[in-house]
Every structure is written in C-alpha cells, then in structure tokens.
Amino acid sequence: MEGGVHPLPDTSAFRDCFALTWKNPYVLRLAFSAGIGGLLFGYDTGVISGALLYIRDDFKAVDRHTVLQESIVSMAVAGAIIGAAVGGWANDRHGRRSALLAADFLFFIGAVIMAASPGPATLIVGRVFVGLGVGMASMTSPLYISEASPAKIRGALVSTNNFLITFGQFLSYLINLAFTKVPGTWRWMLGVAGLPALLQFSLMIFLPESPRWLFRKGREEEAKAILRKIYPAEDVETEIQDLKDSIDKEIREEGTSEKINFRKLWQTKTVRRGLIAGVGLQVFQQFVGINTVMYYSPTIVQLAGFASNQTALLLSLVTAGLNAFGSILSIYFIDRTGRKKLLLISLFGVAVSLGLLAGIFHQTTTHSPMVTVASGTKFSNMTCPDYGSAANSASWDCMKCLKASHPDCGFCSAASDKLLPGVCLVSDDTVKDLCHGDSREWYTRGCPSKFGWLALIGLGLYIISFSPGMGTAPWIVNSEIYPLRFRGVCGGIAATANWISNLIVAQTFLSLTEAIGTDMTFLLFGIVSVVGFFFVIVFVPETKGLPIEEVEKMLELRPLQYRFWEKKKRPEGTMEEEEKLDKKNQGV
C-alpha cells in the first residue's frame, strides 16, 4: 500500500472501538486475549510492592539488607531481560501465539515457586521465572494486537494492552489489601499471580496465529481466513493483496525474509532510525522513574511519613487507580492527538511533578520531629545505642535516628501529636509492639511529616501525567515503526532495552535514596525527563494513521522534525490512495 500520512476521519478511534464491539467482536476478542500478557506484567509490578512489606517482616535478613530487597524486586526484571531477548527470536521463528503460550507457562511456574519459598534464595529463583514470562509477554502482546488490528484503530487496540497493565497493577493492590490479615500474607499475594497466566493460556490456545506472521511463513490460506474475520468483506481482498505485495517486496530485496543479522539492522537506514526512536523511548520510559513508583509505591508512601503497612497499601491503591484511569485516557487520545504530541505533553507533566516531589521530600527530611531522651519512661532501657553515645544527641531528629545502624533503630512518635519530639529506640518486634501499645506510631522508613499528603498529590500528578503518554506510546510506536521482516527482532531489542533500564532503576532506587536522599533521587529522574522531552522532539516520528506497510517509506524520507505541531506535506500522487483508505476506515 503506497501513500503518505493519512488524515484521520472525524470519528475518533476511541468511539470506533466501541462500535467495533457491535460490528466485529472477533477483533476485540483477539486484542483482549493477547492483552492479558499486559495484565501479567502489571500484576507482577504491583504485587511485589505490597508483598515486600511482609517479606521484610518474615525474613529479617531482607529487612536488614537493602540489597536483598532490591534483588527480590529486580531479579524478575533480570529474568524479563532474557525473556524479552528470547521473545524476539521466538516471535519470528515460532510465532506470536506460541511465544505467549510459553510466557504463560513460565509465569505460572514462577508463581508456584514464589508461593512455596522457604527463604529469600528460593523466592529470588521464582522471581526469575516470573520475569522470563513477563519479558516474553511484554513485547509479544502489543505485537500480536498490532498485527491483528485494522490500521485506523490499531493505536486504540494496542492501548488496551497498556490498560490491562495498569488494571493488573490496580488488581494487585486490591489483592494485597485482601490478604493483609490472612496467615501467609505475601505467599497468597504472589501465588495468586499464576491465575492470569492460566486464563491467558486457556484463551490463546483456541485463537489463531498473527496473519502477518503466517504470510511470512508461506501459510497464505490460513492468513487469508483470519483476515476475512478481521476486515469487512468489501475491504478484505485489498488488505490481503497489500500484505502479499509487502512480503513479496521484502523477499525480492533480501533474497529471503529470514536472513536477519544485527549488522544489517544497523546498516538499513529505516531500521536504524526506527531503533533509535523505539529503543530511546523504552529507555526514557524507565529512567523517568515509573517503576520505582510502582515497585516501591508503599515504601515511598512510608518515606512520606505514613508508618502503617495497611495505610501504605491503601494509599498506594489510589496511585494504581490513577494509573488505570490514565491508560483509559490514552485509548481516547492516542489516535486523536497522535503519539508524539501525547509523549511531549506527558513528559512535561512528569518533569513538573518530579520537581514538586523533590521539593516536598526535601521539606520532609529537613523538618522531621526532634528526638527526646527516653529516661524515666518504659523505653529507658531500649534507647538506640548510637543516640545514647552521641556527643551531639540534642541535635538528633527522626531522620538521623533512622540512619543509625549499630544496631538499626526506629522512631517512636509522641502519643499526643506525632509531629512533637519522640524517642529513638532499638528496632525490633518487641519495641515496635510496646510503641504501638502506648498509642504511638512506629517509624523505620520515613518520619512523621505535615507534608505527607502533598507527597501523595505529587505522586498522583506524576502518575496521571505519565500513564496516558509515556506509559502507552513507547509500546505502540515500537509495535508499528519497524519494517515487517525486522519487526520481531527489533521489538525484542527495544523490549530488552526497556527491561535493562528497568533493572538498573529497580536495583538502585533504595540505595540511591539512602545515598543521596529521596529528594535528590526524584530530582535526578526529573532531569532525565527533560532530556527525554527534547529526544522526542528530535528523533521520534509521528506514526498516527499510518498503515504498517507505509511506515518504512516514511522513515526513509523523514527528516528530523523539530516543529512537531506543523502538519506534514503529503507526497505527490497519494490522494487516490488516501481516499481509498478513508473509505476503508469508514467501513471498519
């Protein structure tokens, strides 16, 4: 199919998706079934944030060593790196459907191992298995949906994958709350993670392979049968011919559509430009700090001054809900506003909210309650040794108390007002229970603060800015920006870059907050988001409304677009093709 950028009809893809429910529910069935891979991704991201609070209580070694907490979180990410890399190869060799089925099997095995873990080491092994499944599903689900969707509503349907990611995160917080009072809390939280994998396996085993992949493998009759279910009868023959012409062209150019190597990828201008944009977006998606918020959301809430595990989980549920709401906004705006504009609006909001969070946490850490002497109280024999031996103990505040490490110490707030001076005590379960028994709050992560609610507002602003743009658009751009013969491999490279970046952030966040402070950590993420803003302006093309077969031509001819708000000039001789696509889109 030839032509330039096609204008969208007046009716948005968001409304078309609802119309499609009535006209052709088969397409939504394909999108929803594959999108459960996003649910796996989201559930694992959210569930570990709450489970970690209780894992620390059960395994004291985890509570004492930040690196163990980071490893329990990040080893799933390490597994996802391998899963995404293998997923690119598996997608091209065995098909999108087979890759999703393999991902479900690995995820289920990992969930069982985690639920039965006798110690941190086995738990980490289970996290690796889960990560392998999540990594494969993260790049396969949007690819499958993209290749089984009509061009006009492709962005909206791929956005359903991101909605299921955010819904999975929201669901995980609900399940975390449901199991807070149940014996074996975190084991149930992590074990339930196997259910979405079983659901997707049960659905996908009865669904077909991607029609575009079938064409690549010479299984044309199977592909035609699927396309006839996806497109209206008056359009299907044109779509079949367009796809056949695209594959034939690739075979003529390459001799065979299967000969792919990394040198060829980089030497091909269209692929190189696509990789710069696609991989760059995936890296910036992680380096603006989103998964620190999702993996450590209850911990961040505790750093803001909310001591209770249950309170931290409940307040984190609000951020997960905003994330899901933002993904719904994305479904509406992604094909109406365009990928690039939505990315820029998103990054601007992210930068502002991270700057706000940095300022709030700076105020929280510099205005924490002072420490008072515990002599003459029932806590007199439990005073933190570092405080008792300090020459400048009169200058100690809550933050300094929490940094004591010989042994670890906690802050027991005043009974009447948690913002008044409290006592610095040895951190153990007996002291914690005594503190609670005296109608006080026990703090080991963050300190009491009158700015805590402002931190929650900042987190909410961050999530609602990130989710509609940076949460969705990088996956959509990567599902449509690469030429067909390179799509599986390039998608795997981009997903691998995403997971490597995710691993770096997840493995360093808690250590960064200890080394440079929570405020400077969020400020660092804010600086990265500003850099990402300019990256999008220069390197990321607008693919809104482009049929997949035309993306390669667009990349070949496209200069750097600094004035992203200006409409692009359409190449001569494309009016007839555009009119044809408009008529087809109106019939979807």
Please explain how this structure is put together.
The chain has 588 residues and is an all-alpha fold. 71% of the residues lie in helices and 2% in strands. The chain has helices at residues 13-23, 25-58, 60-64, 66-94, 96-115, 120-147, 154-178, 185-191, 194-204, 211-216, 220-230, 233-254, 262-267, 269-287, 290-295, 297-303, 309-333, 339-366, 385-389, 398-402, 429-437, 452-466, 473-480, 487-515, 518-539, 548-557, 575-587; strands at residues 409-412, 423-426, 442-443. It has a three-stranded antiparallel beta sheet with strand order 2-1-3. The longest helix is centred in the N-terminal third of the chain and has 34 residues, at 25-58. It starts with 12 loop residues before the first helix and ends with a helix. Mean pLDDT is 80; it is low at 1-11, 570-579 and 581-588.
Provide a short characterization of the protein structure.
This protein has 588 residues and is mainly α. The chain has 27 helices and 3 strands. Helix 4 (66-94) runs parallel beside helix 6 (120-147).
Search tags:
single chain; 588 residues; mainly alpha; three-stranded antiparallel beta sheet; 27 helices; disordered N terminus; disordered C terminus
Secondary structure: helix percent: over 70%
- Unreliable spans are 1-11, 570-579, 581-588
Widest sheet: strand ordering: 2-1-3
**Shape from CA axes?**
elongated
The strand count comes to 3
Q: State the helix count.
A: 27
Report the mean per-residue pLDDT as an integer. 80
How would you classify the helix and strand content by structural class? mainly alpha
What series of H and E elements makes up the topology?
Answer: HHHHHHHHHHHHHHHHHHHHEEHEHHHHHH
Radius of gyration: 26 Å
Distance between the termini: 18 Å
**Beta-strand percentage?**
under 5%
- Main sheet attributes: strand count, strand direction, barrel closure: 3 strands, antiparallel
